[in-house]
């Protein structure tokens, strides 16, 4: 069965939302809404670091986007990195929302509440029926679904590990980007770390304590962290705007 080529039968909410917001992307999706911005350029840089790790090493096929606290920008990074990779010529992406406590990726892409990973793990819902199309043909979503009462147990289950392994190995041109709950709040993030190839750590400029960064690095393991994203660094944005204007790329009216 071609899992990603055929999305299966849609429920009413999925069918109603399929094209919601596609003509006017959410502003969080800077790769689509603001492709010439500093943030969009940094996601292209991050994509290059992921796809071409250097030293002849193979790129990681599954990537967990992790952060210590709520509000550091994990989902923002996961969404835009997934778009950036999907904009490449040969790469396809599956974006999985494993933050079952506060799922958000489906709404960013214009969907209402829809079933997802939770229904697959708890109720054996057919996986093809849970996959969602996006405005990009090479980017597919697997939403979190309804928040369960025991997210740590569900995410730590053997079936969840088999799910990640299955979607990673089914096609050799597909990257798996996984959004996760905050590691200092939710125990399930540590379980997901064991099931992925690599981790991107997201910290918020001026707010994430050094001690939390050091603790996460020790827990995950330095060898598994392929990048650290410093989010909301305003000084860098101002520098980029200056450079863009100098080289004639400014979008400001003269």
Question: What key attributes describe this structure?
Answer:
254 residues, 11 helices, 14% strand, globular, disordered N terminus, disordered C terminus
Count of domains: 1
Please tell me what the overall shape is. globular
Tally of helical segments: 11
Structural class: alpha/beta
CATH architecture: 3-Layer(aba) Sandwich
Give the SSE map.
Elements: H1 12-17, H2 30-33, H3 38-51, E1 62-66, H4 74-86, E2 92-97, H5 105-108, H6 117-123, E3 139-142, H7 151-155, H8 158-169, E4 174-179, H9 188-193, E5 198-204, H10 210-220, E6 225-231, H11 234-246
Parallel strand pairs: 1-4, 1-5, 2-3, 2-4, 5-6
Overview of the structural elements:
There is one protein chain. By secondary structure, this protein is of the alpha/beta class. The protein has helices at 12-17, 30-33, 38-51, 74-86, 105-108, 117-123, 151-155, 158-169, 188-193, 210-220, 234-246, and strands spanning 62-66, 92-97, 139-142, 174-179, 198-204, 225-231. It has eleven helices and six strands. It has one domain (12-246): Rossmann fold (3-Layer(aba) Sandwich).
The gist of it:
With 254 residues, the chain is α/β, with parallel strands linked by helices.
């Amino acid at each position: 069965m071609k899992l990603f080529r055929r999305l299966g039968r849609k429920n009413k909410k999925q069918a109603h939302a399929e094209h919601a917001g596609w003509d006017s992307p959410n502003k969080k999706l800077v790769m689509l809404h603001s492709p010439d911005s500093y943030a969009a350029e940094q996601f292209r840089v991050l994509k290059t670091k992921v796809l071409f790790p250097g030293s002849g090493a193979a790129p990681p096929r599954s990537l967990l986007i992790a952060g210590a606290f709520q509000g550091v920008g994990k989902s923002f990074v996961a969404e835009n990195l997934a778009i950036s990779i999907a904009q490449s010529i040969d790469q396809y992406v599956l974006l999985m929302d494993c933050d079952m406590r506060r799922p958000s990726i489906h709404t960013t892409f214009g969907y209402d509440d829809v079933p997802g990973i939770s229904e697959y793990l708890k109720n054996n819902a057919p996986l093809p029926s849970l996959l969602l199309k996006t405005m990009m043909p090479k980017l597919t979503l697997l939403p979190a679904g309804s928040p369960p009462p025991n997210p740590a147990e569900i995410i730590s289950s053997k079936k969840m590990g088999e799910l990640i392994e299955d979607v990673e190995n089914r096609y050799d041109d597909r990257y798996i980007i996984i959004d996760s709950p905050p590691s200092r709040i939710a125990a399930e993030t540590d379980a997901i770390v064991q099931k992925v190839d690599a981790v991107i750590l997201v910290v918020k400029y001026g707010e994430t304590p050094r001690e939390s960064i050091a603790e996460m690095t020790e827990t995950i393991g330095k060898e598994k962290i392929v990048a650290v994203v410093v989010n909301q660094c305003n000084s860098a944005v101002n520098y980029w705007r200056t450079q863009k204007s100098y080289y004639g790329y400014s979008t400001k009216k003269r």
